[in-house]
Design goal:
- The N and C termini lie close together (6 Å).
- It is elongated, with a radius of gyration of 17 Å.
- It is an all-alpha fold.
- The chain is built from 6 helices and no strands.
Length: 144
Amino acid sequence: MDLNRSIGYSFARVLLGIIFLAQGYGKVFTWGVDQFMKSDFFYKPYKDILPDYLIYATAYYTSYVELISGILLIIGYKTNIALYALCSVILIVSIGHGMIEPIWDLSHVIYRSILIIFLLRYSIEGNIISLDYILNKNRKLDIK
């Protein structure tokens, strides 16, 4: 395994983890999910389109998945599961934004999506600087 590839992979994984951790932390601990859900940003655009229970469930699901997956990515534990969960968040956000505004600002999801796709594509080869790698006794550290 090329050291630069491993460091590049780890950088992308930790960066994405920080982005999602900060977002989830803000929703869960700074605002509180209930306050976030009731905000004009989140609730108002959807209140006439979706039932309240779906808005409520979406707010909790996305907030906690962002928080927990962010932590998992930073430490490199259960990396693929965290990435799969974040894929679901990106899809939910994309559907939600698309329901409100057919042509919307993709900066909310495009860069995160690119990082997720990169990490999923190279997860097996590049994830040697991680808790996943340390806990997997069957792999050898092979850095050139």
